[in-house]
Design goal:
42% of the residues lie in helices and 15% in strands. By secondary structure, it is an alpha/beta fold. Strands 1, 2, 3, 4, 5 and 6 form a 6-stranded parallel β-sheet that branches. Helix 2 crosses helix 3. The longest helix is centred in the C-terminal third of the chain and has 27 residues. The protein is globular. This is Putative fumarate reductase. It comes from Secundilactobacillus oryzae JCM 18671.
């Protein structure tokens, strides 16, 4: 199974990038997770009269060829980062790779609340017309106190947190398999 992981911000340092890279290592014997950056995507502008940027089409093609997507979003002011919103706008404008694509939402934050507001908003965006992703319900992985839960090597250290991530990911794997078997039957 091939998954694309999207680092949902354009910051040089990101606990969400670290979490996504941890997942790629932790689940390497089960799936391939390719982490992709959005920092090179330009801000979306509908009136752009030129061609769709190559960086957008590259990401769209990667998503289109994957079995599913994991989006790691931080939370800024109870919302997703502008760079992530712009990325989704470009993708829904240019190629629609999220249509019927299974998506898992994860997030890491420094505080106690995790990324609950951002994840709720991202779910609404991904369910909107023109995007039409299939977002896994009820398995939102929110890493609170990321600075304390990720060590210098980028590994989760709390066994309960690892176990919960394992449960969420197992549900997502099953969700992807069911979704993809439905596509074959169509």
């Amino acid at each position: 199974m091939k998954l694309i992981g999207i680092v949902g911000n354009n910051a040089n340092f990101s606990y969400n990038r670290i979490l996504l890279n941890y997942m790629a290592k932790h689940f390497a014997d089960q799936v391939e997770i390719e982490a992709r950056e959005i920092r090179d995507l330009p801000m979306f502008c509908e009136s752009n009269e030129g061609p769709v940027p190559e960086s957008v089409m590259d990401l769209a093609n990667a998503i289109d060829g994957a079995d599913g997507v994991i989006i790691a979003t931080p939370e800024y002011d109870h919302s997703i980062p502008a760079a992530l919103k712009s990325c989704i706008e470009w993708l829904s404008y240019a190629a629609h790779p999220f249509v019927d694509k299974p998506v898992m939402i994860i997030g890491a934050s420094l505080g106690q609340q995790g990324t609950s507001w951002a994840q709720t908003q991202l779910r609404e965006i991904l369910n909107s017309p023109g995007v039409n992703a299939r977002v896994l319900s009820g398995n939102q992985f929110m890493l609170s106190f990321a600075k304390q839960q990720l060590n210098e090597a980028g590994n989760l250290t709390n066994e309960k947190t690892i176990h919960f991530l394992d449960q969420c990911f197992a549900s997502f794997e099953q969700f992807v398999q069911v979704n993809n078997s439905m596509k074959v039957a169509e």
